[in-house]
Specification:
about 120 residues; mainly alpha; 3 helices
Amino acid sequence: MNATTADLDFPVLTDIIEEDTAPLQAQPFQEALTQRLRTQLSQRIPGLLEAKLQHHLPDAIGVPLQTAILDALAQTLPQAIQQATASLTDMLTLEIRQELEEQLAFEVKRAVEQEIMQLSGQLRT
């Protein structure tokens, strides 16, 4: 049972390599596989791009956006505070003036009524 490779009729590697038909058959398969892989990968690119953008965009935009917002606030906040203060001052002044006028009118009316009562009491006697 000591048989050689030639006795068993197994193809040897050199026999397979020497055949010219193998590269011709592999070429259409390689092209089809390459095309299929290109198609699959090109379909995945938008999803991959979106995932990467969602991951990196907040960091890339976050700091510059925060800086821009803080700069804009630093420039506009004093003016906004001044306007709000002026508006609040005007509103408070108007309300206090109205309350004082009402209080004054009430006090004048009460004083006049008291004076009239005193005068009518003196006239009767």
